[in-house]
Amino acid sequence: MTATDDLVERNRTWSAAQAPSDLPIQPRLHVAVVTCMDSRLDLFDVLGLAPGEAHVLRNAGGIVTDDVVRSLAISQRKLGTREVVLVHHTDCGMQKITDDGFRAELQAASGVAPSFAIETFTDLEEDVAQSVRRVRRSAFLLYPEAVRGFVHDVASHELREVVVPGRAERRERDLDRERGVSPVRLAAS
Ligand SMILES: [Zn+2]
After folding, report:
1. Which domains does the chain have, with CATH numbers?
2. Which residues are annotated as a binding site for Zn(2+)?
3. Segment 39-95, tens digit of pLDDT
4. Which end of the chain is more exposed for a tag (fewer CB within 10 A), N or C?
């Protein structure tokens, strides 16, 4: 029995015990979450989500790739979401390999260098910030400024926000600086 056979069997048991669902296609909270594929990260538990509430996009690292932007564009323009939440996490597999190393491994194994970026990272917070900036700079989204980034601690289960000053906050901070006021509020947009 393969793992897939096991999952199909689990579905048979589970679906038989479920009431029919008539949830609408548009996520009720109008939010899309981008996160890592890590098996320890149960996003529905971490964010208290229920089916029908949010779009969930996952890949290795929770990276905002062109394909994630494709999904977010559909999510916002066709399915009514208005906010993006990014969740990266501690002890991520993408911190344990390097772009050059994995690229060389793929090339050695296949004879072809991949055309895609590997997108490993070393600094977790900086990678969240980078992902926030990618969403903000996307020309294809309706709400590019409505994005916040977080780190989920897989050991403690806590979520920590990575504040990335946006255009409005930067303007305010610059004005404060001119006025001689020290910045006390750096909320993410
Ligand atoms: Zn990960």
Report:
1. 24-179 (3.40.1050.10)
2. 36, 38, 89, 92
3. 999 999 999 999 999 999 999 999 999 999 999 999 999 999 999 999 999 999 999
4. N
DSSP character for 139? Answer: S
Listing DSSP states for 52-77 in one string gives TSEEEEEETT----HHHHHHHHHHHH
In the reported structure, the alpha carbon of residue 37 is separated from the centroid of ligand 1 by a whole-number distance in angstroms of 6
Q: What is the pTM of this model?
A: 0.87
Show binding-site residues: 36, 38, 89, 92
- Ligand 1 center from residue 83 Cα (angstroms): 22
Centre of ligand 1 to C-alpha 36, Å, is 5
Which tokens in the block code for residue 135? 């969403």
